[in-house]
Amino acid sequence: MCNPRSYDVQQWETVAETPTLRVIVITLAPGQCVPWHLHTEITDTFYCLAGPMVVEHRDGMAASELATGETYAVPPQTPHYVHGKDGGRCKFLIVQGIGTYDFVPLDE
Description:
- 0% of the residues lie in helices and 53% in strands.
- The protein is built from no helices and ten strands.
- A hairpin with a 6-residue loop joins β5 and β6.
C-alpha cells in the first residue's frame, strides 16, 4: 500500500482541461498510487496505456484489473484507489467529467 500522505507520481501530463472536463496522463512508478478518494460529481474513466493497473473499491466491490488497452469507469461518489499491479509501474489516461472536479481524500 502506498503512503496516502504523499500523492507523488512519476509523471503528470495535462492533455486538456475545461471547467467541467479534465484529460490527464499519469505515470505511477513502482510503489506509487493514487490514494483512496472519491469525486462528488465526476466520473473517472481510466484508459490503461501501460500496465497492468488496478482500480480498487470499497464496500465489497471487486477490484478491477486493467491490461494495456482496457478501460474502466468509476462513477461519482465511489471510493477508489489506483496502483500498478503488485506495486509495479503503470501509465494511464484518465478522463474526468462532466462536472466540477474535486478530490475528496478518504482514510485507508
